[in-house]
Fold this sequence. Notes:
Elements: H1 2-15, H2 17-42, H3 46-66, H4 68-75, H5 82-122, H6 126-146, H7 149-155, H8 161-174, H9 176-193, H10 202-226, H11 228-231, H12 242-245, H13 247-253, H14 258-262
Helix pairs in contact: 1-10, 2-3, 2-10, 3-5, 4-10, 5-6, 6-8, 7-8, 7-10, 9-10
Amino acid sequence: MLKFFLKKNFCDGWDNLFSILLSNVLVIALFAGFGFLVRFAASVNLLVVFAVAIMATGVLMAVVFAWGAVARKIADFNTPSISLFFRSLRESWKTGFLFGLLLGMFVVFIGVSFTYYLRMAFSGKSIGLFFVSVIVFFALICTMAMQWFVPLYFLQETNNFKKCFKKSFIIFFDNAAFSFAMLLYNLFLLLLSFPLFFMLPGVNGITLSNMNALRLRLYKYDWLEEHPDYENDRDKRADVPWDELLAEDKETLGERKLLSFIFPWK
């Protein structure tokens, strides 16, 4: 399943380079604008910096969140449109803004507490090292779980904020190894974004990555619903027939040879 995901995600990204690039330019512009606000807030005091940074993250994530509808369209082998993004922004900005506020508060909390206990650890107090380990472990779990928040909202239209939050952790704990593999892959995309000034793959390229990954992974749960004897058996749950479940998607994607990316008309 992972091999097919990597192939499909690359193909989807390549086929929609312009859409991803254009949306990332908007994110970069917003990020730059908020950077100036944070610098201005720094001349006041640290609490104002935190407040501005959290609010800015909320606004930024509202835009990124709305692009999830476009990512869903791409993941479903369809052609996205600009109107879809604006329609999604109008309908989902509250959820995206709230999610951004949560992320902003999470980053501030982790940053402040990690710095505090790290200083304590360097001063020779073993309790500081213990709490640093706990914070890192907690942050890692939350980061891997939150990868699934945006895809859950758009792939399962009955999910609200609370359900997305809860299901994100359910997906993580049931697919810990896969979630960790996705974290490494997304970190690779993040590192790749630096020399490309975050225009590609950027934030929205990572959003597409998570959307593709969860879309394919949810086939597992559809199959388990049809086979309850497997669902309740921990040993059998690993025996998911991925070749069978991915057959239609593989056929739709087709054979994509290297030359087809360079010369699409051939």
